[in-house]
Design brief:
43% of the residues lie in helices and 12% in strands. By secondary structure, it is of the alpha+beta class. The relative contact order is 0.08.
Length: 475
């Protein structure tokens, strides 16, 4: 038991109400007085070890539910909401938001959803105004469906047991040869579904990487795709044909509001199956542990691309057989975050850019290298990250290879499992780079890389000096 006192009155009161108990009844079950329980619920007394154990034994719930703290993604979303011009004058600080998330998690989620809805409406109105101004027609647009799917993946911590099992069962029943996975899947599609696969020139594909014609039962793959990507697209097509009912059931269990978001989620699930089929869970986890997550060696052993491998590593979260708790960010050269996985611990700001101190923004200068960096956020959370630049063929011009930037990271306490962390002293704070989520949400006063002042700090100007940092504000 940790030494820190645990005040969880709101969670205790919510548990009692969910169970339909009065204070007198619950107090009797716990062997305490009703007045003492009242003090616990009002955070006038901390929960003792004896009461916690009695709670677990009497009501059969996980003690971690009372020791849990709000995840980073929730706190970041609350900070973004508090910084909104509509309510920033209230002056909610980080502790206020932590208290809200801890004591009233459902109210915190309500505030987050209200802010996201407000922001989405404002964005849609601005986009609509632009179109009306340009006298163009209206069409379905907006980032909300993408964000809704990302949030759904994060809610599942990017792990789907039913898809892992489906991939294992299919591989066994289809008798796939791991030495020629592409050939095996190609033959299966032809023999079972009557689908013929062809690799077609760029000019024939006209901007598509994969195209399936239901009537002629022809699957076309672009010549732009390299071997790992062709293999992956075959696996995606198998998921869409073989797992139609399972995918539909999984989508129907969600509360995604639009047809677009549901279709996007369905495709995300098909992609997950493809990764699980190409990189079986147990084989991938064992190889990762044997090689200590040496990304290049692991990629070659599994026969996949670096980006495919990084995606897969974020999903190794099977209870009882977990890998390192990775998250992944993918960005373009303009600094836009184009993909994220496993961001329960490390959240990124959905608006306002990122932090210039992250090594990922230097990966393009050192193409082919994997840049290791230990970072520390303003709230004291620490991570170990691996960044690299990868090149993919451009659909516009096959002579040009577009650049993508990947950042794979994990909590600092898990970094010892990585070969890249051997030279890093995890107990020392000296080698860690202080970073923020983005300039508007970061309150570090001594950052020379800052592009904008923080939203919740008051600027001041001193004409007698020019400081090394671009903005002066009350720390």
């Amino acid at each position: 038991m940790i030494d820190k006192k645990l005040f969880a009155g709101a969670r205790l009161k919510r548990l009692r109400k969910d169970l339909g108990l009065t204070q007198v009844r619950m107090a009797a079950d716990l062997g305490v007085s009703a007045s003492y329980l009242n003090l616990l619920e009002r955070n006038q007394r901390p929960l003792s070890a004896r009461v916690l154990i009695r709670l677990a034994e009497t009501f059969e719930f996980d003690l971690k539910a009372f020791a849990a703290t709000p995840d980073q993604s929730t706190l970041l979303s609350l900070r973004e909401a508090a910084a909104d011009p509509a309510i920033e004058h209230i002056g909610l600080d980080v502790q206020d938001l932590k208290d809200l998330a801890d004591a009233h998690p459902r109210a915190a989620q309500a505030l987050i959803q209200l802010h996201q809805s407000h922001r989405g409406t404002a964005s849609d109105l601005a986009s609509l105004a632009d179109r009306l101004d340009d006298r163009r027609g209206l069409s379905d647009t907006g980032e909300q469906p993408l964000q809704q799917v990302r949030d759904m993946l994060q809610a599942h911590n990017n792990y789907y047991e039913e898809l892992e099992e489906a991939a294992d069962v299919f591989a066994e029943e289809a008798h796939l040869d791991r030495a020629d996975l592409f050939g095996g899947m190609q033959a299966y599609l032809l023999q079972v579904h009557g689908v013929r696969t062809r690799i077609l020139p760029l000019e024939v594909m006209r901007g598509s990487l994969r195209r399936y014609d239901r009537h002629s039962k022809r699957l076309a793959l672009s010549e732009l795709l390299e071997a790992p990507a062709r293999q992956f697209q075959l696996a995606v097509q198998i998921a869409l044909l073989e797992l139609r009912d399972l995918l539909d059931q999984m989508v129907m269990k969600t509360d995604l509001p639009s047809r677009v978001s549901r279709r996007l989620y369905r495709m995300a699930l098909a992609n997950y199956f493809a990764a699980a089929l190409i990189m079986p869970y147990e084989k991938t986890l064992k190889a990762a542990q044997d090689l200590r997550y040496d990304l290049e060696s692991l990629r070659r052993r599994l026969g996949v691309s670096l980006e495919q491998l990084c995606h897969r590593l974020t999903s190794l979260k099977k209870p009882g057989a977990r890998g390192v708790d990775f998250f992944l960010l993918r960005a373009d050269l303009a600094g836009n975050i184009t993909k994220r996985f496993g961001g329960k611990h490390f959240a990124y700001a959905k608006t306002g850019g990122s932090c210039a101190r992250l090594a990922m923004w230097h990966a393009n200068e050192r193409s082919g290298e994997i840049l290791a960096q230990a970072i520390a956020l303003g709230d004291g959370t620490r991570y170990f990250t691996l960044s690299c630049a990868v090149r993919v063929p451009s659909e516009d011009d096959p002579r040009i290879r577009a650049q993508r930037i990947l950042m794979l990271g994990c909590p600092a306490e898990e970094a010892a499992a990585l070969i890249y962390a051997d030279a890093w002293d995890s107990k020392s704070m000296l080698s860690e780079m202080p970073v923020g989520l983005n300039c508007r949400l970061c309150e570090r006063a001594d950052c020379a890389s800052r592009a904008f002042p923080p939203l919740q700090k008051r600027l001041y100007a001193d004409e007698t000096k020019r400081a090394a940092v671009p903005f002066a504000f009350n720390a």
